[in-house]
Design goal:
Elements lengths: L19 H78 L6 H15 L3 E8 L4 E6 L6 E9 L2 E9 L5 E8 L9 H9 L3 E2 L3 E2 L6 E10 L5 E9 H10 L7 E5 L5 E4 L2 H7 L15 H13 L2 E7 L2 E9 L7 E7 L1 H65 L11 H11 L3 E7 L5 E9 L4 E3 L3 E3 L4 H9 L3 E3 L9 H8 L7 E10 L2 E11 L8 H20 L2 H4 L17 E2 L16 E13 L14 H17 L4 E5 L2 E6 L9 H22 L6 E15 L5 E5 L1 H11 L7 E4 H7 L3 E11 L3 E11 L1
Parallel strand pairs: 22-24, 26-28
Antiparallel strand pairs: 1-2, 1-9, 2-3, 3-4, 4-5, 6-8, 7-8, 8-9, 10-11, 10-14, 12-13, 13-14, 15-16, 15-21, 16-17, 16-18, 19-20, 20-21, 23-25, 23-26, 24-25, 26-27, 28-30, 29-30
Helix pairs in contact: 1-2, 1-7, 7-8, 13-14
Length: 780
């Protein structure tokens, strides 16, 4: 090279080489000072932290004891508040029950008027009997007197007769109005009390005259005339809430009362709760945003039971107390107070100690920070570059995998690669592909991949009327990532219905756009749960969305004949199927014409219905069930004929239904059996409900090859055996609830395009290994 000067070998220097002297100098100048500062900070911080922890533990111990005393005081006061209903009901049960029939009405009015004058939380009293007679005494909503009401029958017309009295007991006026068909025997407070045969609480209701919330407690009694009566007391919830708000628990401590279903009975900011629920008592539940601390202590209470439970919420420490109220219908009293209300002085003392300690070493910390800042920045940049290179390489491999997948754009083939690769590059727990129906009323899950379980599912449906805010989010057409899906009103319904079973938190929603009539429309969405790298895969996500859009357009173009579900007799039109057989254990069957042969049948659909012993409401013996069993047997025979089932057999408490016992594969067998299962479930539910018997059956289904044939001498008995029969029976035995239809993955794969399913996870079967289980819900 012209003009260049060649260097001698001894002048060449390796810039990466470091001498021992330079390393030793860096150790003395940097490592030792930084280590010394760190040791000083650790020692000072340890001393301060130990002092703070010791003080805090002592304060919290004292606080717990104090709150336990407060809790006992509050429980006692609240019990006394509602005791006017429970004790008053017991007194009235004895007082009115022993009164002569001629004076029962006057005894009721006298007792009710006295209690209303003495007990402010009581709103009114009812007395009804088995003949439909009804008495009411309540405060006059327009004055300070009392109103007596009696249901009277004047000829053929029933009216309410009202008498209004002032404070001194003087009759002011009387009035009458139609009853509107009112019958006290059909009211919840009457029916629940008669069924329970003891004191019973009913859920909160709006009291018609005062428009205030009340809760009703009722007790049954039998008068001297032998007539069954129910005495009821209405307790004002608004006054109970004012009572709880008036309790001084701590500077910021509050209390609330929930019933056994988690609905708010009374408590802090009760008026806001009523407004939020639009006056509907069934919607008066805890708001996760405004009442998050009560939601947390209620969840802890349901898991751990009553007691003191410290917890942390949104970075703050709280002390929660939970207690079941006596003499109530499993009501729970919850008390929440910030820990700062009791331990603030300990925290302040520890903070001041730490501040004095920090002042001593602040300059040394600044120096150490400056020394390490440069190295940290270089290391951070190196890590960022390495991460981007790894992410690029991962997405490249994923794109290659998608490109190599055959028929990836064919709507008839499953696109499992799309969800799997997207879950891999984004590190998501679960990725789901949703298709929006053409009318926009529902989202259908084409495929959902769970990376932890390494399993695919699909066929689920989300309805717009159940989660309008989530559909609006999809319709907006903009990608959205929500850190906490449960806390965002747009995704709260999706979290409750889809994510909660997997305990996932964050959610990314990416719209899928399609082209219709020259303009862009939203045709679906991709959802990713707990995807930490979601923001780094936007390019790959757009590619997957484009492929899904093409697939969805192909689905829209499929002829209607391909998506129709054959059911009933339509499912077997044009096919020659063997005639139905009904086992002799259920009904003597006619001689079956033709011989189907014996051996392996390739596509047998098997349904097993298991029945448990019924429990009759009236305690009658089993002979009363014969007519019910006969009705069920008759319905099963009709259903078998209607859907061309091949065999129906009774074995103990099991009923085995079979379709598809043909030498050639019968693609309609599983459809016909699924339709029969849905009809049979509805029929059994109706018949058992009519007989006042709880559902006592569960259904299992499988689809696959099986061995079968006629056995024994004439009359021969058809028998079927194999893994398909075994798995169907296991599905029936493992059903989560009575009356449900549990199926194997083979049934799900065969029917997922035309029926809706719920995934139940995995199961293990001997000789078959691990498989997926689903619950058949209904038709699409």
């Amino acid at each position: 090279m012209r003009g260049a000067k060649l260097l001698a070998a001894n002048e060449i220097v390796d810039p990466t080489e470091q001498t021992d002297a330079s390393l030793r100098q860096k150790f003395i100048q940097v490592v030792i000072p930084v280590a010394t500062v760190v040791l000083i900070l650790a020692a000072i911080g340890g001393i301060g932290w130990h002092s703070y922890r010791t003080t805090r533990e002592g304060v919290l111990k004292l606080t717990h004891e104090l709150l336990q005393s407060v809790q006992r005081y509050v429980v006692q006061d609240v019990t006394g508040y509602i005791g006017a209903a429970t004790l008053g009901g017991s007194f009235a049960q004895d007082f009115i029950g022993h009164a002569p029939a001629a004076v029962a009405e006057r005894a009721f009015y006298a007792y009710g008027a006295s209690m209303l004058r003495l007990v402010p939380q009581i709103q009114s009293y009812y007395l009804a009997d088995q003949n439909g007679n009804f008495l009411l005494v309540e405060r006059d909503p327009n004055g300070k007197g009392l109103e007596y009401t009696q249901l009277k029958t004047d000829g053929k017309q029933a009216v309410f007769h009202h008498d209004f009295y002032d404070e001194s007991g003087k009759l002011l006026r009387s009035d009458e109005n139609p009853t509107g068909g009112y019958d006290p025997r059909t009211r919840p407070w009457y029916e629940n009390t008669i069924q329970k045969k003891g004191f019973a609480w009913t859920p909160p209701t709006i009291y018609a005259n005062t428009k205030m919330l009340v809760v009703t407690g009722a007790v049954p009694l039998v008068g001297t005339d032998g007539v069954q009566r129910v005495f009821a007391i209405n307790v004002s919830l608004n006054q109970l809430s004012q009572f709880l708000d008036g309790l001084k628990i701590s500077q910021n401590g509050t209390a609330i009362i929930l019933d056994k279903n988690g609905r708010i009975i009374a408590g802090h900011d009760f008026e806001k709760v009523v407004v939020r629920a639009h006056g509907d008592p069934t919607k008066m539940t805890l708001d996760p945003t405004a009442q998050g601390t009560f939601r947390r202590i209620y969840d802890i209470y349901r898991v751990r039971g009553p007691g003191s439970h410290p917890f942390k919420y949104e970075g703050n420490n709280y002390i929660g107390m939970a207690q079941t109220l006596p003499t109530s219908d499993d009501w729970a009293l919850l008390i929440v107070a910030p820990e700062n209300d009791f331990a603030s002085f300990a925290r302040q003392s520890g903070r001041e100690s730490l501040q004095f300690s920090v002042i001593i070493v602040v300059l040394a910390v600044v120096l150490a920070g400056l020394l390490g800042r440069q190295g940290q920045r270089a290391e951070r940049l190196t890590r960022q570059l390495a991460f981007e290179r790894a992410q690029t390489s991962t997405q490249t491999v994923a794109l290659q995998q998608v490109a190599l997948t055959p028929d990836i754009l064919d709507a008839k083939d499953e696109a499992l690669t799309l969800t799997e690769e997207l879950a891999r590059v984004s590190h998501a727990r679960r990725v789901s592909l949703w298709r929006l129906l053409h009318d926009g009323t529902a989202l259908i899950c084409e495929d959902s991949y769970d990376a932890k379980e390494e399993a695919h599912s699909g066929g689920f449906e989300l309805s717009r009327k159940d989660m309008e805010d989530f559909f609006k989010l999809v319709d907006a057409g903009a990608p959205v990532t929500v850190a906490s899906a449960a806390g965002d009103p747009r995704t709260a319904a999706y979290e409750r219905m889809v994510m909660r079973d997997n305990s996932t938190t964050s959610l990314t929603v990416h719209p899928i756009r399609g082209t219709s009539q020259g303009h862009s429309d939203i045709v679906g969405a991709i959802t990713m749960e707990d995807a930490p790298f979601a923001q780094h895969v936007s390019y790959f996500l757009e590619i997957v969305a484009s492929i899904a859009s093409i697939r969805f357009s192909g689905m829209a173009e499929l002829p209607a004949a391909e998506s129709a579900v054959p059911t009933g007799n339509d499912a077997v039109s044009g096919q020659v199927l063997p005639p139905p057989r009904i086992d002799e254990a259920l009904m003597q069957a006619p001689k079956v014409g033709g011989e189907i042969g014996e051996g392996l049948f390739p596509s047998v659909a098997v349904m097993v219905i298991t029945f448990s012993d019924p429990v009759m409401e009236n305690g009658d013996d089993a002979s009363g069930l014969l007519s019910l069993i006969d009705k069920i047997a008759t319905e099963v025979q009709d259903i078998a004929v209607r859907y061309s089932l091949f065999s129906v057999k009774v074995a103990g408490h099991r009923l085995i239904c079979v379709a598809g016992c043909t030498k050639e594969p019968d693609p309609t067998a599983i459809w016909r059996l699924a339709e029969a299962a849905l009809v049979l479930r509805e029929t059994c539910m109706t018949l058992l409900s009519t007989a006042n018997i709880e559902p006592i059956f569960s259904i299992g289904m499988d689809f696959g090859p099986a061995m079968g044939g006629d056995l024994g001498k004439e009359p021969k008995t058809f028998n079927l055996w194999g893994e398909t029969v075994t798995l169907a029976e296991l599905m029936a035995q493992g059903a989560p609830d009575v009356g449900t239809i549990e199926v194997t993955e083979r049934v799900y794969q065969a029917l997922r395009e035309h029926y809706l399913f719920h995934s139940r996870g995995s199961f293990y079967a001997p000789r078959s290994g691990i498989g997926r289980v689903y619950v058949l819900a209904t038709r699409r």
